[in-house]
Amino acid sequence: MRDKLVETKAEIIDNVNTFLDGIYSNSDDKEDFRKMVKRGVDFYPIQNGYNFDFAPSRFIGYANNDLENHRLLKKDIKNNNTSVGGRKTTTADGRKTTTAINKVLDPKAIHNEFLKSELVAFGNRIGTKIDNRKHKFWTSPTVRRSIKSLKSLDSAVDDINDSEVGNNSPEYIRRMAGSYVRDPEVRRQVLSRANGVCEYEGCVPFMNINGQLYLEAHHIISLAEQGEDKISNVIALCPNHHREAHFGEKWESLQDEFKKILERLNQ
Q1: Over the stretch 14-53, which tens digit does the pLDDT of each residue have?
Q2: Domain boundaries, the chain
Q3: What pLDDT is attached to residue 135?
Q4: How high does pLDDT run on average in the chain?
Q5: Preceding peptide of 107 cis, ω within 30°
Q6: Can you give the chain as a three-state secondary structure string?
Q7: What is the pTM for the complete model shown?
Q8: Segment 165-205, tens digit of pLDDT
Q9: Average pLDDT over residues 138-152
Q10: Contact 175, 222 (CB under 8 A)
Q11: What per-residue confidence (pLDDT) applies to 189?
Q12: C-alpha span between 165 and 237 (Å, rounded)
């Protein structure tokens, strides 16, 4: 029975994995999965490195679902239209699946601003723009721990705080003057690229309290100098080399070395 709803968490997780396999496949069917993300309302989030991936209720709420089964459910739009609350619906109805998933997962799907911003970033990564809706998310204890961990990452040191002292060079002060908003998504992509290793000399940093190797993001051309807030302008450094890049006697020559490294990484 293709419109049977999920009844266990294991069924939901199996569907999440099926959906994400489709999103990251090289198949022509990938566009079908992207459209489901674009138009989705309620989502199951799952951490993927320094980011979150998402699977929509309408797909993961049907037992043993796959793309072929989902296409058959969509065809029922023509053959099995019914009315819910004065609005036509079908067997492939996200409200049905959300209700079913809410019976399995605790807590029920809720609005979360952090996850909403992560959903938009996920859409950007897979090449689609998320529809402007009020989205809700299932926030298990694991998801809440992941959110706390990533928020901690977002509030960590990016480029060195302007208030820190240690380099009185007029040239340094000129370059670093001002305060600029940085995109946390850029930092995460850079840290994901580094995979826990300092991109300058390959040293492995300490483990932070969240169980992640601690690296910091450094703009080789500062935002004050109209440097771009893009991964092509940001290098992941261990804390020691990051301080040296700002306060060491070789800070200017290090920028040239960083540029060469990023040119190689971005080829």
Answers
A1: 999 999 999 998 888 999 999 999 999 999 999 887 789 9
A2: 9-152, 157-265
A3: 97
A4: 81
A5: yes
A6: CCCCECCCHHHHHHHHHHHHHHHCCCCCCHHHHHHHHHHCCEEEEEEECCEEEEEEHHHHCECCCCHHHHHHHHHHHHHCCEEECCEEECCCCHHHHHHHHHHHCCCCCECCHHHHHHHHHHHHHHCCCCCCCCCEECCCHHHHHHHHHHHHHHCCCCCCCCCCCCCCCHHHHHHHCCCCCCCHHHHHHHHHHHCCCCCCCCCCCCECCCCCECCEEEECCCHHHCCCCCHHHEEEECHHHHHHHHHCCCHHHHHHHHHHHHHHHCC
A7: 0.60
A8: 444 454 544 444 443 445 677 788 888 889 889 999 999 98
A9: 83
A10: yes
A11: 84
A12: 19
Query: Per the structure block, which two tokens stand in for 70?
Result: 């989902």
In b/e form, how buried is each residue of 131-140, taking b as 16+ CB within 10 angstroms?
A: eeeebbbbbb
User: So what's the pLDDT on residue 26?
Assistant: 86
Tokens of 72: 């058959």
Residue bearing tokens 């989705």: 40
Per CATH, the number for 157-265 is 1.10.30
